[in-house]
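Backbone-to-sequence.
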């Protein structure tokens, strides 16, 4: 039994069942035993787009440079990344942005990262760059425009799950049977069905009709709160935010809670702290939260559509000319980033900006 599993079992015995969101928060973020607190999981348990090819971060860097120029080249702005992993994306972004030295000079770089292990790796990756590490977006000063990127960040934020029963929606909980963690449902309905008989949680799923018994609805208040903070800052100070993650463009029903270990699916409850836990991101819910905070939302699109609009194939051709011996690897990386059966369709991209023009490069705003 892992030390973290023992800690969770003791918590449940003392306080009763915990929500899926609470379980995920502990499994990933426990200061001593949390998955992201102890070591670098990238490559061992999963791979992210910046680690597949330098093209990904370079295109985002050029996109941000264009957005900065479109906004009159502010003399100072906050360049922020949420969940920066090894720092690879930021390193590639900054390297590409050197085509406009004024952008580099104006950028105050902040990385929102809670893991001491990953902060140490980021420091090595970004050696020579002045970096401000923060535990949350709220720690970034609110005195200049915000240019923010989050790649595979929101999928790792805790979410709640609700299962439809005859008497309404019951929250899915984590409880214990002897030494085993198991799922259970709250005895009382969290959202009783309305008189029409349709049933459903707040912000009903448009066009989905009455869900059948056993349908699962997921909601991430933590994600929506962060998006609202970002959107409010952009509304007041200006700037853009780019969110890239795997998920769905429309709110719907379904169980997307999953665990990954050594690049394969794992049991969600067997070894807390030893596997990555994620949810598919509900981009429609994030978009609603951004609009409620007063910001403008660009149309949600696939990762493939974004990268193609930013010129991924032209950049790949240029790289192959410079490194002909790497042509096959470059083609493979582009296929992995844009292929519909790989990351191209499952991963989505959304952008937030001010309500007035000029919008965001690569997006229909």
């Amino acid at each position: 039994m892992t030390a973290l599993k023992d800690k969770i079992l003791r918590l449940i015995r003392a306080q009763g069942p915990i929500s899926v969101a609470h379980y995920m928060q502990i499994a990933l973020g426990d200061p001593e035993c949390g998955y992201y607190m102890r070591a670098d999981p990238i490559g061992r348990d999963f791979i992210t787009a910046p680690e597949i090819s330098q093209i990904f971060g370079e295109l985002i860097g050029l996109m941000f440079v264009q957005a900065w120029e479109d906004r009159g080249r502010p003399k100072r702005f906050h360049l922020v990344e949420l969940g920066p992993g090894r720092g690879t994306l930021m390193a590639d972004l900054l390297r590409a942005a050197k085509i406009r030295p004024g952008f580099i000079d104006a950028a105050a770089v902040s990385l929102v990262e809670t893991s001491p292990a990953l902060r140490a790796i980021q420091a090595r990756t970004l050696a020579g760059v002045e970096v401000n590490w923060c535990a949350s977006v709220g720690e970034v000063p609110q005195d200049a425009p915000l240019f923010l990127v989050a790649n595979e960040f929101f999928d790792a934020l805790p979410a709640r799950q609700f299962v439809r029963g005859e008497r309404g929606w019951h929250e899915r909980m984590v409880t214990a049977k002897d030494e085993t963690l198991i799922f259970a449902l709250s005895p009382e309905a969290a959202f009783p069905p309305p008189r029409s008989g349709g049933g459903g949680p707040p912000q009903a799923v448009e066009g989905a009709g009455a869900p059948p018994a056993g349908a699962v609805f997921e909601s991430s208040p933590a994600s929506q709160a962060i998006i609202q903070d970002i959107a409010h800052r952009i509304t007041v100070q200006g700037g853009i935010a780019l969110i890239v993650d795997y998920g769905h463009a429309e709110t719907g029903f379904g169980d997307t809670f999953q665990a990954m270990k050594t690049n394969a699916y794992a049991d969600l409850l067997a070894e807390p702290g030893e596997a990555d836990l994620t949810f598919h991101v509900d981009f429609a819910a994030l978009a609603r939260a951004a609009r409620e905070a007063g910001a403008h939302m660009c149309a949600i699109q696939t990762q493939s559509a974004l990268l193609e609009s930013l010129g991924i194939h032209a950049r790949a051709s240029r790289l192959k000319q410079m490194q002909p011996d790497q042509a096959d690897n470059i083609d493979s990386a582009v296929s992995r980033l844009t292929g519909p059966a790989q990351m191209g369709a499952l991963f989505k991209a959304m952008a937030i900006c001010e309500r007035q023009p000029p919008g965001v490069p690569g997006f229909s705003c």
